Amino acid sequence: MTQSEPKEWLLDEENELRIEVEFDVKVKLRLVTGTAEVFGTELGQNVDYEFSGRKIAVFTWHGCKILVWGTCSVEYIANETPMTSYINMHLALEQRRVLATQNNGQGPRVMIVGPNDVGKTSLSKMLLSYALRQNRQPTYVDLDCSEGSITMPGCLTATPLTEMIDVEEGFGSSATSAPTAGSAVMPLAYYYGFPSPKDNVKLYTLLLNRLAHSVNRRLEEDEAARKSGIIIDTNGLIDATGYEIIANCIKAFSVLGHERLYSDMTRLHQKKAGAAPGAPGVAVIKLAKSGGVVERDNAFRRHTQNQKIREYFYGTSKSELAPYSTNIGYHEVEILRVGEGTLAPSSALPIGEDRKVSETQVVKVEPGEHLLHSVLAVSNADRMVESEILETNLAGFVYISEIHESRKKMILLSPCPGKIPKKYWWLGSLKWAED
Ligand SMILES: Nc1ncnc2c1ncn2[C@@H]1O[C@H](COP(=O)(O)OP(=O)(O)OP(=O)(O)O)[C@@H](O)[C@H]1O
Which among 37, 81, 320, 384 has the fewest CB atoms less than 10 Å away? Predict the structure, then answer.
């Protein structure tokens, strides 16, 4: 797996070691002296960390020595990083948290926007980790439906974090049916089912508003979480649709109370006061992109998605899981999908009379061979009321591993044993061939 002789790296203060590891390669890393962190999470001294299919930066504020076993496809030390501006950003947020504590107010709500591959998720992790290191309980909202940092790709999620984010696994191989890495609480997930918000803007907006409503309600009840604030990671859409979504998100999460934020944000990139009496000030802060952020091509992204799905059912090398295989009859479940963009199989039967399917219309899908290798999201809904079911959160996911058309049965993998307690399952565009 790894070569026997490690490579030694000596990092001066405020340097970072940037490494890229292919998917079929394992690289081991150990901090020997000094202090270092990966996207905000501190490394333990003389602890071995293993990475595969990752692009990471090991940053040190005060200098350190690191040993690396294995072959990285890219490895170099950078002495220019935007980390000082990131920590300053954190300190400014921390001040807002202190103020919120003093005034019994609410902590900062930060939304990170920008094009693809500029380091939005990495910055989110850092701001969350720094907050966690100060014993805060920030809420992480992930609106990047292509990636699925918390659960599976295709979801909009929120999770209150209470524990440090794992160095090796990031937000982890977490499921909606289990607490995530970094959290003692189950994440809240809504199923969107497409890789880009553009694929079904109406549905995306509906779910975004629903998620924001649930988060806002939760924060009303949880004082520590409310004062710690929210970090919102967005997807990289910055065209007209993207701006519309950003503007909606700002409103939904009350990032600020200013309707013209969108134009202000793009035009000014600076602090603006709210227009409405008593509206909070608007702070639009431009942060530099790290030179280490790596562009990921479609193949890499697809591979990351597959890894994510695999981890949901089988866990990681650190915490392996054994999924349960269940036999289920076609008649025992109702498979649904949403909207025009997904209209496809002729077997799809529209519920309602209209043949033309709107973007948020729920469509019943007849089970059949076409479901093979699909990942389906299990809704928590107990009844099929169109306006309700769309906005019902998820219980978890199942994977269809075999279809027996003649017996009208399918075999599925699920993380929990026995019959799946919920019968409404969403079909999106996620497919996965088990390897
Ligand atoms: N300083 C760094 N050194 C090395 N790799 C980095 C660094 N910062 C980020 N990366 C890596 O670069 C890739 C892109 O970063 P990230 O996911 O944070 O970008 P993003 O803006 O969220 O992308 P997208 O919107 O497309 O999901 C990731 O694989 C991340 O681990």
Answer: 320
Indicate if ligand 1 lies below 6 Å from the C-beta of 57: yes
Q: How far apart are CA 119 and CA 122, in angstroms?
A: 5
Among 289, 182, 192, 287, CA closest to 245: 192
ipTM score assigned to the predicted complex: 0.97
Pairing between strand 155-160 and 109-112?
unpaired
Question: What distance in Å separates the CA atoms of residue 140 and residue 228, rounded to the nearest whole number?
Answer: 11
Instruction: Give yes or no for a contact between 402 and 165, defined as CB atoms under 8 angstroms apart.
Output: no
Other beta carbons within 10 Å of 116: 14
For ligand 1, pick from 38, 124, 142, 293 the residue to mutate: most ligand atoms within 8 Å of CB: 293
Feature table: binding site for ATP: 16, 55, 117-122
Q: Where are the beta strands (DSSP E) in 37-179?
A: 37-38, 41-42, 48-51, 54-60, 64-69, 74-78, 109-112, 139-142, 155-160
C-alpha closest to that of 413 among 311, 302, 336 = 311
Q: Are 258 and 264 in contact (CB under 8 A)?
A: yes
pTM score of the predicted model: 0.86
Q: How confident is the model at residue 268 (pLDDT cuts 50, 70, 90)?
A: very low
Is the C-beta atom of 72 inside 6 A of ligand 1?
no
Domains in the chain and their CATH numbers? 7-81 (2.60.120.1030), 83-268 (3.40.50.300), 323-431 (2.40.30.330)
